[in-house]
Amino acid sequence: MLKAPEHQVAGHLASDGKLGPLVDGSGRFYKPLQGGGRGSKELAFYETFSSDTRVPDHIRKFFPVFYGSQLLEASNGSGLCLHLVLQDIVSGCINPSIIDVKIGSRTWYPEASDDYIKKCLEKDARTTTVSLGFRIAGLQLYEGKESGFWKPGRKEVQSFTVDNVRSVMRRFVSSDSSIGNENPDCSFAPSIYGGSAGILEQLLELKAWFEDQTTYHFHSCSLLILFDKESVLKGSTPVAEVKLIDFAHVLEGKGVIDHNFLGGLCSLIKFVSDVLSESKESSIKADEESEKPHNCTNNGNCT
Question: What are the start and end residues of every segment in region (Disordered) (predicted)?
């Protein structure tokens, strides 16, 4: 039984008679091919990428598994539509916290029409795309059983300032990520952002590849950062993942490094690294405070 994804945070939603992706509940994600040639270009990318021997095996883990394409009934009831069949990235997660980050200080691609470029320039200028080299395109943060998810709407997300982005990156790894908490503790940062399998290490691994690869230029591509907060709250070892998605505007690199993507990736790494450093400093201060000797007077008062 196909249904709309429960944890989709950006893009076109399969709701209210609109065309959008579907999931089957067993680990597969069905994305309808977009119009205007974008869908066919994304399908061509997956077909080429899946067999491209120039892509190292350790880099493939950052891309959804591609299972081919399939004709399915469209979510908007318009009839059969060709869908990409991909890995459902959040399959198996109970309450995943997810951030969708659009990478690059320029989201338009060289072959785009003048109208499309103008539209992108306007959006890039009013979001953090130009100032940071990336913008948050969508997110959901799991707050707990009572509150559920914080999942701001598209307009709110597009209005995020640099300070808002910094706050989201901190709340993402905090035990209390509620919107009313002005001082999130970042207590999950060491296990989610840090460590040999954490988000920072994965981003650095991607960065090393982008510093060398000249095969592809990833225009208007998103990077998903996610982990199942429920497993952390239960004391289980968290699994944090980084995935690249949305490849309708990927072009040949022609021997040139993709500086637009690389620059945005480096900026995102700086934000993650800063949160991780802050959490370590807070932990050290807390340890130092707990180790301080307490001087007690004869009347029982301690200082």
Answer: 282-303
Output the CA torsion 9→44→268→120 (10° steps). Answer: -80
φ/ψ region of 243 (left if φ > 0, alpha if ψ in -120 to 50, else beta) reads beta
Q: What is the pTM of this model?
A: 0.88
Residues 160, 274, 216, 11, CA torsion sign: negative
Distance CA 73, CA 65 (A): 22
Q: Supply the pLDDT for residue 303.
A: 45
Average of per-residue pLDDT values in the chain: 88
Instruction: Give the Cβ contact number of residue 274 at 10 Å.
Output: 14
What are the φ/ψ torsions at residue 144 (nearest 5 degrees)? Answer: 150, 175
Closest CA to 136 of 217, 224, 208, 210: 224
In this predicted structure, the answer to whether residue 296 has a pLDDT above a threshold of 50 is: no
Using alpha carbons, select from 222, 303, 295 the residue that is nearest to residue 265. Answer: 222
Burial call 72-93: b when 16+ CB within 10 Å, e when fewer: bebbbeeeebebbbbebbbbeb
67-81, 176-190, 274-288: which has the minimum mean pLDDT?
A: 274-288
| Selection from 211, 247, 288, 281 nearest residue 45 by Cα | 247
